[in-house]
Every structure is written in structure tokens, then in C-alpha cells.
Design goal:
310 residues; alpha+beta; Glutamine Phosphoribosylpyrophosphate, subunit 1, domain 1; eight-stranded mixed β-sheet; four-stranded antiparallel β-sheet; binds aspartic acid
């Protein structure tokens, strides 16, 4: 079983043209197929997560890799994490600006370093040494995200609180994530993001923080989150869901709902959602925002993609 999200936010039918919707659906389907193909061939859940996320990192529609949002200074600073539920190994990178596929850098940290998390220049040096593809920072530039930043800067100057500023493409968030269950019964999770438009230099979100935006353990569930990172960090969202499954015996659906639709929903700013998957292949995709790009592919080999609330 392979489940992905492509970000949560103010995504409504009204705000989406049929052409745009098709592009998002096609992008999600392509990534779902890529991840599932790995699993079908007997590949590991880690391989599937990396394969699916790389596709969306390369797709400019999504806020990860190419198409990432801009910082206040007009830079793209990327975060990503991956975790192996079998070994409890994890790797993450934060604030990187020249690594084409941050999810692969996170994997390299997990497998080829003695550490879990590397940031900025050090992470970039390591990725370069590991032979990962390095690009000029301008590779990540897209007009849509640049305009979104410009609009926020204008609103900010007018003195409006930034949190209330709508982003033109109604795609306030847009992180990508994947959770997978392989034939051996092992879980894995991964998340990759450009963060949040107009973030401060050096700001790190929940995605690369193990237990916040990303978590996988074979004794409970695999989780990848998307949303207002500051809240997902403080509420330890991914691990909280795993803990509810592990210690309270909740189903994956109950646990994910409890955290997303009760705990986080009680905080107006804590907008977002998660994908969560257990070892039986049960999964949940709750979100408390207006929409979340999400999809899954299982035994029938057909990708299912949903975007809106209903
Ligand atoms: N959670 C991400 C962050 O705060 C943003 C997102 O999900 O779109 O960096």
C-alpha cells in the first residue's frame, strides 16, 4: 500500500480550474504509480517513499524541490526527512538550497552518515560528496511562487498580519509526503517541502523533524504531515498519532482524527492534515483545512486521488 499527500490548504472547487485540477491529479497519479511500482517489484517501503517524493519534488506544481515557496529574502530553503519503520533509522536535511532532491539527501544522511539531521551548508557538502545532483539555486525558481511572495510582501507592508494574507494560487501549503507498506510488512514515511511563503531565513518547519512532520515505526504507524509547521512541531503530531495507536490501541483512523480534527482543530492557526498507514494496510488521510491533495494505490494498482473535503 502506498499513500501520498501533496499539501493541504485553502484548496476549494471554486478556486480550481478544470485544467489546474487535472494537472494536480496527473502529478499525484504519476507519483503514486512510481512508488507503487517499486513495491510491486518487491522493493522496500523506503525505496517507494523516495521514488514517489522525487517525482513531486521535480513537479513545479508542488511546494517541494522545484516549485518550492520563497523565504522573505526571496530564496528557496528546503527541508526533507525520511524514516524506516523497521530499523527506526531516520535522516533529514533542513535549509538546503542547492540539492535537487532533498528527500534523497535525507536518505543519504540516514544511510551513509552517523547522524539523523544535517542543516544548511554541511548538509549540502555531504550531499555533494555522496554524489547527489547539485543545482544552481535558480533551478527552484517558479513564477507562481515568486508572485505569491511579492503579494505577501505588499500585504505585509500595508501592515496586515501575514497569517491572514491569502496566497494567489490558493495553495498556501503544498508540502509533499508519502507513507508505504512493503511486501515484507515494513513501514516507511517521508516528507519534503519548501516550507511556508515569506518564512524568515533559517526557519525550519515540521517536515524534517522526526516525530513532528515525519515518523514511521513498525510497532505502530507511518505518518507524514502537512500544514502550519510551527504547530505540528509543538504538538509532536506524527509521533502523537503513533503513540495513540501504540499505547491506547486506537485504529489509525481514530488516532489520526483525534490529533488532526480534535487537538489541532481546536487551534485556529493549526491548519493542515496527515497521511497515516499501519502494517495491515489501513490508512487515514484526515485534514482540517479546506482541502488536501491526497491519493493512494493498493492491490488493484489503480491510483485514487482526492483533493476537496467532499
Ligand atoms: N509543514 C510545512 C512547514 O511548515 C508546510 C506545508 O506543509 O506546506 O514547513
Amino acid at each position: 500500500m502506498f499513500v501520498m499527500h501533496g499539501g493541504a490548504g485553502t484548496i476549494t472547487r471554486k478556486s480550481m480550474t478544470p485544467e489546474a485540477e487535472k494537472q494536480y491529479r496527473d502529478g499525484m497519479e504519476q507519483a503514486l504509480r512510481a512508488g507503487y511500482a517499486v513495491l510491486q517489484k518487491g522493493g522496500t517501503s523506503i525505496d517507494a517513499v523516495e521514488a514517489g517524493i522525487r517525482i513531486l519534488e521535480d513537479n513545479p506544481l508542488f511546494n517541494a524541490g522545484k516549485g518550492a515557496v520563497f523565504t522573505h529574502e526571496g530564496k528557496n530553503e528546503l527541508d526533507a526527512a525520511i524514516m524506516d519503520g523497521k530499523t527506526m533509522k531516520a535522516g533529514s536535511v533542513a535549509g538546503v538550497t542547492i540539492i535537487r532532491n532533498p528527500i534523497s539527501a535525507a536518505r543519504a544522511v540516514m544511510e551513509k552518515s552517523k547522524h539523523v539531521m544535517m542543516v544548511g551548508r554541511g548538509a549540502e557538502l555531504f550531499a555533494t560528496k555522496m554524489g547527489l545532483e547539485i543545482v544552481d539555486p535558480s533551478y527552484f525558481w517558479t513564477e507562481k511562487r515568486w508572485k505569491a511572495l511579492q503579494q505577501q510582501l505588499v500585504e505585509e507592508q500595508k501592515g496586515k498580519p501575514v497569517a491572514s494574507v491569502p496566497v494567489p494560487d490558493d495553495h498556501k501549503f503544498g508540502t509533499v509526503g508519502a507513507v508505504a507498506l512493503d511486501k515484507e510488512g515494513n513501514l516507511a514515511a517521508g516528507t519534503s517541502t519548501g516550507g511556508i511563503t515569506n518564512k524568515m531565513y533559517g526557519r525550519v518547519g515540521d517536515a524534517p523533524i522526526i516525530g513532528a512532520g515525519t515518523y514511521a515505526a513498525n510497532d505502530s504507524v507511518a505518518v507524514s504531515a502537512t500544514g502550519a509547521g510551527e504547530y505540528f512541531i509543538r504538538w509532536t503530531v506524527a509521533y502523537d498519532i503513533a503513540a495513540l495507536v501504540k499505547y491506547k490501541g486506537l485504529s489509525v483512523q481514530q488516532a489520526a482524527d483525534e490529533v488532526v480534527n480534535k487537538k489541532l482543530k481546536a487551534i485556529p492557526e493549526a491548519e493542515g492534515g496527515v497521511i497515516a498507514l499501519d502494517r495491515q494496510g489501513n490508512f487515514a488521510t484526515p485534514f482540517n483545512s479546506e482541502g488536501m491533495y491526497r491519493g493512494w494505490i493498493g492491490a488493484d494498482g489503480v491510483p485514487h486521488v482526492e483533493i476537496y473535503k467532499d
